[in-house]
Design brief:
Layout lengths: L1 H10 L3 H28 L8 H5 L9 H4 L17 E5 L5 E6 L5 H11 L36 H5 L43 E3 L7 H6 L6 E3 L2 E3 L11 H11 L11 E5 L5 H6 L5 E6 L7 H8 L3 E3 L14 E7 L7 H13 E10 L1 H4 L3 H16 L3 E6 L2 E5 L5 H4 L65 H22 L2 H4 L3 E4 L6 H8 L5 E7 L6 H6 L3 E5 L12 E7 L2 H4 L5 H11 E12 H13 L3 E6 L8 E7 L3
Parallel strand pairs: 6-7, 6-9, 7-8, 9-10, 13-14, 13-16, 14-15, 16-17
Antiparallel strand pairs: 1-2, 3-5, 4-5, 10-12, 11-12, 17-19, 18-19
Bound molecules: 2-acetamido-2-deoxy-beta-D-glucopyranose (8 copies).
């Protein structure tokens, strides 16, 4: 347990701490024992434990000297929890705090779950001690400070036959053996980020040292340089008077949009520095801002440095990596996209992403300018939107707002031969991984799923209709799993926040690398932790993304065998629960860890909850990356089959 010792010496810095250590350890033990009882029953949910991962574990038949003689007996289960619901736990100051809720207890529920847990839970215990030696990784060339592997693959881009549709901004990942094998360097003079909410208005120049956007857009009141910082006055190409005025105008034009209640998740296309999303956040709306890595290349990097949800993505030839009916509102302000090209194939992608009854907000010159060419563009847009059954709800000034229908009846009642056609009924609109765009209208589900989500904030914990469409081979009801997952993470995050000082760490950009139903993000939201979470749903598992969006959270489909479409140094916390035990069968663990290092901001943290058999290797790689790892027990105690590896990427 060398790692535990390291962890301890990390914290033991002050004398005061030493004095309270005994009390702290004692109370933590009590906490873990109680938690053990609960989490024991919750652990075997399909997302965080995979029976096969233990069965196929290479060291499952090897017993290391430490455990060969006598594997330590599991502590006897504590007696059933008494009626008391409160437990003491040590707070940030090391004092005992009384207000720790363990939560309610439902014995019938436990029985239901015990069936799942029977499926080969803890086979491995004490394996994985065979240390694998990993050489320290070297720094890459300085020219690679903003390197995004799949978007900067020049060799592949040069080979493209066609570039007219924006193919060069799409993913072209380096092939086998050509993946990143060094640490992406930070720019000269990189500083610890300015904390949210201050970062909404200013970021360090040295962290994103690019003046191109200021030169191009400085006059539009977006962005300015002041001494050693960039300032964001909250303007934008179309909202010269500030984002707040603009948002007021939209909500007055169509009161049914109802920001923060009916409209919870928005998409901002071609977002500038994401001021739309940054300001809409105060209205309790989460906006995902997307833009390609093009000539204004650092838009998304600025957005993420500010602490606003953003990702590199492009409307070109492939589907975006978000599910159907994901966004309640999609916004495009002068986003320089030709929505009518190729039979409206790009607007049909917007239509797929838009929730039934959702709104498309278009702020652009053709809406209000009377020049002939612009008028023609407006006519084309009017014609296309009519054919795909969107209703023009309001046009005022430079803003036009359309609404998508609630069901298929309008599509089916069109004259025969009207283009674009409806998609095949066997086309799955949630199948997005490297899928080409289709020039057809995605059907809405006949049962109305997705059209009637609960209003925010109740939406966060309400099991949505589309839960029923997730293909899970579970013997208990999906609703129970959904609720159990929420409860499980709520308990864990509450513990993390208190025991590991998350409030002081003030994570802003958070990624859950294997999100399940989004319980981790929901818990952070519920506990009012001021951050946003990118919920990544790996292609190797069940597609739960529709459920995540229906809860009012954001996320994306991804395959961790490939790099992620974000700039280096953009996340403060990477959370990976049960990720490596699944993906190790598909790809190289060190490649995933290198990618994590690329995405992680200096000063950021990594929390890995996974099988103890993997911890030796993960720790070795973490050291090679220059992180400071520390191994901790889960709530199940020291002999559980899972552990938590916490890593610190120091500035
Ligand atoms: C695991 O078991 C297989 C077959 O039972 C055996 O060939 C192999 O050597 C064992 N591995 C170790 C590390 O003991
Ligand atoms: C447990 O699983 C078995 C078969 O898989 C089933 O017959 C039984 O009803 C299940 N029990 C519960 C409580 O779900
Ligand atoms: C380019 O076109 C050639 C011939 O049509 C084809 O074989 C090749 O696969 C294409 N390359 C790409 C990258 O699409
Ligand atoms: C946003 O949500 C919080 C918590 O639910 C609430 O207190 C606040 O009033 C909401 N703000 C707006 C503008 O609706
Ligand atoms: C958009 O594409 C259509 C069809 O390709 C073309 O007629 C139109 O001129 C384009 N509009 C703009 C603004 O480029
Ligand atoms: C379909 O939606 C329209 C509104 O878009 C509504 O008027 C109509 O009643 C709905 N039809 C059915 C069958 O639900
Ligand atoms: C929408 O959902 C609510 C409950 O969330 C339900 O009461 C209502 O009947 C639903 N409406 C439709 C049209 O399905
Ligand atoms: C995984 O990738 C690293 C380089 O990132 C390489 O050194 C190692 O050999 C690879 N491991 C396997 C099992 O392919």
């Amino acid at each position: 347990m060398k790692a535990l010792a390291t962890a301890a010496t990390d914290v033991v810095k002050t004398k005061a701490f030493v004095k309270i250590t005994a009390i702290a350890l004692l109370s933590l033990t009590v906490f873990f024992i109680v938690n053990y009882f609960y989490s024991n029953s919750y652990i075997p949910l399909p997302f965080f434990s995979s029976s096969s991962s233990f069965a196929f574990s290479p060291s499952s038949n090897s017993t290391s000297p430490a455990t060969a003689t006598s594997p330590p007996p599991r502590p006897p289960p504590p007696p059933p929890p008494p009626e008391v619901q409160r437990m003491g736990i040590v707070d940030e100051n090391g004092a005992m705090s009384e207000d720790f809720e363990v939560g309610e207890f439902d014995p019938t529920f436990l029985e239901d779950l015990s069936n799942l847990s029977a499926r080969g839970e803890r086979v491995a215990n004490g394996g994985g001690r065979d240390r694998i030696k990993v050489e320290k990784y070297k720094l890459c060339e300085l020219s690679m400070t903003d390197y995004i592997p799949c978007l900067d693959n020049m060799e592949e881009i040069k080979r493209l036959n066609s570039t007219e549709k924006g193919e060069k901004y799409e993913r072209h990942c380096p092939g086998e053996g050509r993946s990143l094998n060094c640490l992406v360097p930070r720019p000269h003079g990189y500083k610890l980020r300015i904390p949210w909410p201050k970062s909404r208005d200013e970021v360090w120049f040295s962290n994103v040292p690019h003046t191109r956007l200021v030169e191009d857009k400085g006059g539009q009141n977006w962005i300015a340089i002041k001494k050693d910082k960039f300032n964001f006055p909250g303007g934008g190409t179309q909202f010269i008077h500030g984002a707040d005025k603009y948002l007021n105008q939209i909500s007055e034009m169509v009161p049914d949009i109802d920001f923060g209640h009916k409209t919870r998740v928005a998409l901002d296309v071609g977002c500038g520095v994401a001021s739309f999303g940054a300001f809409l956040m105060q209205w309790n709306v989460t906006t995902l801002s997307i833009a390609p890595k093009d000539v204004h290349e650092n838009q998304i990097q600025f957005a993420l440095e500010r602490g606003v949800p953003a990702m590199v993505a492009v409307f070109a030839t492939r589907r975006l990596m978000y599910p159907s009916q994901a966004f309640d509102l999609i916004h495009c302000s002068r986003c320089r996209i030709n929505w009518t090209r190729d039979d409206g194939i790009l607007l049909l992608e917007v239509n797929r992403l838009l929730r039934a009854g959702g709104y498309f907000v278009w702020a652009a010159q053709p809406v209000y300018k009377h020049e002939e060419s612009l008028q023609e563009q407006w006519k084309e847009m009017e014609d296309l939107t009519t054919r795909i059954c969107w209703e023009l709800v309001k046009k005022e000034g430079y803003i036009a707002i359309w609404r998508k229908p609630l069901n298929n009846s309008c599509y089916l009642n069109r004259d025969t031969g009207v283009k674009p056609p409806l998609c095949d009924s066997n086309d799955d609109p949630d199948n997005v991984w490297y899928e080409d765009l289709r020039a057809c209208i995605s059907r809405l589900p006949e049962n109305g799923y997705g059209a009637n989500v609960t209003a925010w904030p109740a939406r966060l914990q309400y099991p949505p209709d589309r839960l029923q469409t997730v293909k899970i081979d579970a013997s208990i009801s999906r609703k129970e799993i959904f609720k159990a997952e929420s409860k499980y993470w709520e308990d864990i995050i509450d513990g993390y926040i208190r025991a590991y000082h998350w409030k002081e760490l003030s994570f802003r950009n958070v990624m859950d690398m294997r999100a399940g139903f989004g319980g981790f993000a929901a818990a952070l939201q519920d506990l009012q932790y001021d951050c946003w979470v990118m919920n990544v749903v790996p292609v190797s598992g069940f597609n739960t993304l529709p459920v995540i969006y229906d809860r009012g959270l954001i996320g994306v489909t991804h395959d961790w065998c490939e790099p992620f479409d974000t700039y280096p140094r953009t996340y403060d916390l990477l959370h990976a629960a049960g990720l490596f035990s699944v993906e190790q069968k598909r790809c190289n663990i060190s490649t995933i860890m290198l990618e994590m290092d690329r995405m992680l901001r200096p000063g950021g943290r990594v929390y890995i909850r996974d099988s103890v058999t993997l911890m030796g290797e993960l720790q070795e790689i973490a050291n090679a990356l220059g992180w400071v790892p520390a191994l901790h027990d889960t709530g199940e105690g020291p002999y559980a089959s899972w552990k938590i590896l916490m890593c610190d990427k120091r500035l």
